[in-house]
Amino acid sequence: MVKSKKLSNISILTGIACAMYVVESFIPLPMPLPGVRWGFSNLPVLLAAVLDYGVLSCAMIAFGKSFIGGLLSGRIASATFFMGLSGSIASALFMGWLKKHVPKVGTIGISELGALLNNTVQILIAGLILGNSKAVFYYYPYLVLIGTVTAYLLAVVSNIFLRSMNHDAKV
Amino acid sequence: MAKRTKKYDIFIVAAILLFAVIMIFLNLLIPQKGIIGVKVTIDGVLAVSISQDGLYPVEKDGKHLLTVEFYQGKARVKESTCDNQICVKTGWISNTNQTIVCLPYKIVVEPIGGKNTDGVDIITW
Ligand SMILES: [Zn+2]
Fold first, then answer.
1. What is the complex's ipTM, to 2 decimals?
2. CA–CA dist B78, B89 (Å, integer)
């Protein structure tokens, strides 16, 4: 792909991710989990990963989303902000890496493993912030379950995008 | 056309679900003890230790943060000035496996070990 085309696609994906980040904070979770969100705004990161844009592009979208989304929602520098930032960058790097180096894993696998890492990192950061890791670990299994559902939905949507972009040759 | 759902994906989803379910079961297997009190920590530092029924305001540097209620072996955050109110929505906790977390204020309400549900008093300090 032409470099400038890729760059503009990354910008568009980052913009979409920011919008989704703000919108998703209004969608309540089925149970009160501290600092946790659905994670729908990871869709553009997943798309960049499965389009094989590379780990750096994925991480850039994740960073842009957390930073700009944090500014827009007024959450910047809060505990939730740091949880989201570390979680999404870790999962972006991992998903980009999986696509490049583990061809046996498809879109669903990339999305699910990315979500698992995202949630694990978020819980660890929350434990660090609170100075009490036992307190948040109680919530971890439920977080993983919610993450599995979200990740599955994101993978389905990503595959629809890929199909409409006629990206079959590369997948 | 390349297949996008690969068989490894199914293993991955199954493994993650199993992982979560096992953790939830392990949590349920731990004997559920009633609580005889709670301790409230801010930033990992003990703010107040509660063992008698009542309302306990928690503040830091003169600013009121939230109120913990302890009543007949149950605890909750009755009200909070935090932005997301998740600590309030968590509601009552009544056994030692549970905690209430207020992330904006870095507050944890943690049960103090209590008596077994079968009525035998085992007070652990
Ligand atoms: Zn709170």
1. 0.88
2. 9
